[in-house]
Amino acid sequence: MSAHPSPVSPFSASPSRAPASPAAPLSCPAVVARLRAAGCVFAEDEAELLLSAARTPAELAAMVRRRGDGLPLEHVLGWAEFCGLRMVVGPGVFVPRRRSELLVRQAAALAAPGAVVVDLCCGSGALGAALAARVAGVELHAADIDPAAVRCARANVTAAGGRVHEGDLFAALPAALRGRIGVLLANVPYVPTEEVGLLPPEAREHEPLVALDGGTDGLDVLRRVTASASAWLTPGGSLLVETSERQADRAAALFAGGGLSARAVTSEELYATVVIGTRPGEYQATAGRPRP
């Protein structure tokens, strides 16, 4: 994970009172042993992170205990590495996956300086914040329906110069953005309902169901996004979503039904598939500069 400084977390715990009889600090081998016993595959790496993050022996013991109980490492630390940056991630918030870096790479190739960028279903806001770090001067907005995600996103997106909105999909956005969005990232949930139970316990027990469950075929939320996206995109603007490889053709058909020309991009390195839909027309950023 990255050593870059992170935004201030709204989930940071207040310093604990010193116990009357401090326990002996856990050694690195002891932490590794406890994590291994709990089934952590990368126990050595995780131990280093926990040891560097803990401010006191008591805090280290508590962090090791929480991780051993199955809490995602990112929730224990309070941050996740994404696109080489530290993103604040709090309890009950979807942890950004490395495969979603493909979304950011593709979006960065499409966004011009000054473009209006929206991170819809933003979770922690990691995608939008990472894109803003790559493309100068974008007007960044992010939105999510989950209040915990919105609190978390405000730490990441505000630090990147953006604004965060709470609400259901496009209803959360300012009306002034209609017809102006150059790049629309929508990392919608796409796991079919009957497959949610097959996800790792860290996801299904500690991340919000609304960020995982995509309905019967995994495409329910995408249907709603593609039905309205064209009205919010500027001419030549693009909608980008992550999906599974087996869902890509059906997702592309939904894009076409919404008036967008669609193509799929797959990364074997990240084991990721992104579908990109573009509204017809010539794209220009808000500042009037054409896309290079």
Structure description:
It contains ten helices and nine strands. The chain is an alpha/beta fold and about 290 residues long. The chain has two domains: about 30-70, no CATH class; about 100-280, Rossmann fold, CATH 3.40.50. Strands 5-4-3-6-7-9-8 form a seven-stranded mixed sheet, sandwiched between helices. The relative contact order is 0.12. Mean pLDDT is about 90; it is low at about 1-5, about 15-20 and about 285-290.
Short description:
This protein has helices at residues 28-37, 43-53, 57-68, 73-77, 101-110, 126-134, 147-159, 201-206, 220-232, 248-257; strands at residues 79-82, 85-88, 116-120, 139-144, 163-166, 181-186, 233-243, 261-267, 272-278. By secondary structure, the protein is of the alpha/beta class.
Kindly provide the name of the CATH class of the largest domain: Alpha Beta
- The total tally of domains equals 2
CATH fold category name of the largest domain: Rossmann fold
Strand content: 15-25%
Termini gap: 32 Å
User: What is the architecture of the largest domain at the second tier of CATH?
Assistant: 3-Layer(aba) Sandwich
As a percent range, the share of helical residues equals 25-40%
Q: What's the helix count?
A: 10
- The ordered H/E elements are HHHHEEHEHEHEEHHEHEE
Structural class: alpha/beta
CATH homologous superfamily classification of the largest domain? Vaccinia Virus protein VP39
Biggest sheet record: 7 strands, mixed
